Amino acid sequence: MTARRSPWMDDDLNDLRDLARTFCEKEIRPHIETFIADKHVDRDLWNRAGAVGLLCLSIPEEYGGGGGTFAHEAILIEEQARVGDSSWGASLHNGIVAHYLLAYGTEDQKQQWLPKMASGEVVGAIAMTEPGTGSDLQNIKTKAIRQGEEYVVSGSKTFITNGSQADLVLTVAKTDPDDKAAGISLMLVPTAAEGFSRGRVLEKIGMKGQDTSELFFDNVRVPATSLLGHTEGQGFIQLMEQLPQERLLVAVSNVAAMELCLTETLRYVRDRSAFGRPIWGFQNTKFKMAEVATEARVARAFVDECIELHLDGELDIPTAAMAKLWCSERAQRVADACLQLHGGYGYMNEYPIARAWADLRVSQIYAGSSEIMKEIISRSL
Ligand SMILES: Cc1cc2nc3c(=O)[nH]c(=O)nc-3n(C[C@H](O)[C@H](O)[C@H](O)COP(=O)(O)OP(=O)(O)OC[C@H]3O[C@@H](n4cnc5c(N)ncnc54)[C@H](O)[C@@H]3O)c2cc1C
């Protein structure tokens, strides 16, 4: 039913899928409960993924990456979703942090960080959101003020994925606090720097194995070469340019989650009986599953189109916003319908559908909320 091969797939990607599937089955699936209990993945998971070549798949080989494309990143996300994992923040490390470095970093910055990110020696995070502001990024208060050959970074961030394990935090800060967008720059802040500290791993309703954390910068001194790229004030433009990829990553994971919900629920309703017949035997179940299958198929078609556009360098900001808006909201509807068909078991955390339902909720909020997506789309009309 969803067996149609995505048009961007090829034999090389099929081989990668086999590798990613084996890795997720062996290194992730058996440990999901532990990740959730610990509120983070094993630090070693990053190194193991690096050792088999699953980190920085779309970063050129000269920087230690896999030399692939966004399609390679999509495969890993799909395979991670297939085992029902939301703990490992690999897509943020691979598809976001590494790509800021690749796109805007100086040659020295790329050489310094990318090979270590590809091996798993360094885990990356990106810190935009602050306790006082999320959607309104221009209003951030974190500062990075140049003093001689250093920047002094001060402020706090919250909701940061990979926050407890990150070795490098790509930090959005004001190099000119009197300016709005034009005052924003991105800073490469190693978490070993003096004055940097982490708050608690936050308690969430879903994605419980992901180490979403608060971060604090108490006059952290970093060399002037920690400014991403060569020029101050480019941060907002850099963010705007990279956010379509971030939003497409979310949409890819949402479609994969819908497909998982479909598979899990078909299995469940065929096994479970009520009133002397399988739940599948009720017309309501068949109709709901027909809707779910259609939602998943339509979302898959749109995401496949967006992936192809992105591979051709033609995915524009409004289209990426549409993909994120549509897929995140439809995935939630799908998960909700599937949970209902599980009855009380759907409310139990040990069932993948319960986890998917809670995990998916944040997709309408992070990487730009649904409301912000609608703002972006409407401006293009
Ligand atoms: C699990 C998780 C992981 C995260 N990971 C990261 C990360 O790694 N790095 C990072 O920097 N951030 C991260 N975030 C933060 C996330 O990106 C923000 O929560 C998000 O951008 C929304 O910001 P906010 O929470 O401040 O909400 P607000 O901006 O305060 O918004 C509150 C509500 O107002 C609405 N709203 C705001 N502005 C408008 C408008 N102009 N028009 C209409 N409605 C509007 C919003 O849509 C929302 O419904 C993460 C969040 C979560 C929950």
UniProtKB/TrEMBL annotation:
<keyword id="KW-0614">Plasmid</keyword>
<dbReference type="Pfam" id="PF00441">
    <property type="entry name" value="Acyl-CoA_dh_1"/>
</dbReference>
<dbReference type="InterPro" id="IPR046373">
    <property type="entry name" value="Acyl-CoA_Oxase/DH_mid-dom_sf"/>
</dbReference>
<dbReference type="GO" id="GO:0050660">
    <property type="term" value="F:flavin adenine dinucleotide binding"/>
</dbReference>
<dbReference type="InterPro" id="IPR006089">
    <property type="entry name" value="Acyl-CoA_DH_CS"/>
</dbReference>
<feature type="domain" description="Acyl-CoA dehydrogenase/oxidase N-terminal">
    <location>
        <begin position="11"/>
        <end position="121"/>
    </location>
</feature>
<dbReference type="InterPro" id="IPR013786">
    <property type="entry name" value="AcylCoA_DH/ox_N"/>
</dbReference>
<dbReference type="Pfam" id="PF02770">
    <property type="entry name" value="Acyl-CoA_dh_M"/>
</dbReference>
<dbReference type="InterPro" id="IPR036250">
    <property type="entry name" value="AcylCo_DH-like_C"/>
</dbReference>
<dbReference type="GO" id="GO:0003995">
    <property type="term" value="F:acyl-CoA dehydrogenase activity"/>
</dbReference>
<dbReference type="Pfam" id="PF02771">
    <property type="entry name" value="Acyl-CoA_dh_N"/>
</dbReference>
<dbReference type="InterPro" id="IPR006091">
    <property type="entry name" value="Acyl-CoA_Oxase/DH_mid-dom"/>
</dbReference>
<dbReference type="InterPro" id="IPR009100">
    <property type="entry name" value="AcylCoA_DH/oxidase_NM_dom_sf"/>
</dbReference>
<feature type="domain" description="Acyl-CoA dehydrogenase/oxidase C-terminal">
    <location>
        <begin position="233"/>
        <end position="381"/>
    </location>
</feature>
<keyword id="KW-0285">Flavoprotein</keyword>
<dbReference type="InterPro" id="IPR037069">
    <property type="entry name" value="AcylCoA_DH/ox_N_sf"/>
</dbReference>
<feature type="domain" description="Acyl-CoA oxidase/dehydrogenase middle">
    <location>
        <begin position="125"/>
        <end position="220"/>
    </location>
</feature>
<dbReference type="InterPro" id="IPR009075">
    <property type="entry name" value="AcylCo_DH/oxidase_C"/>
</dbReference>
<comment type="similarity">
    <text>Belongs to the acyl-CoA dehydrogenase family.</text>
</comment>
<keyword id="KW-0274">FAD</keyword>
<protein>
    <submittedName>
        <fullName>Acyl-CoA dehydrogenase</fullName>
        <ecNumber>1.3.99.-</ecNumber>
    </submittedName>
</protein>
<keyword id="KW-0560">Oxidoreductase</keyword>
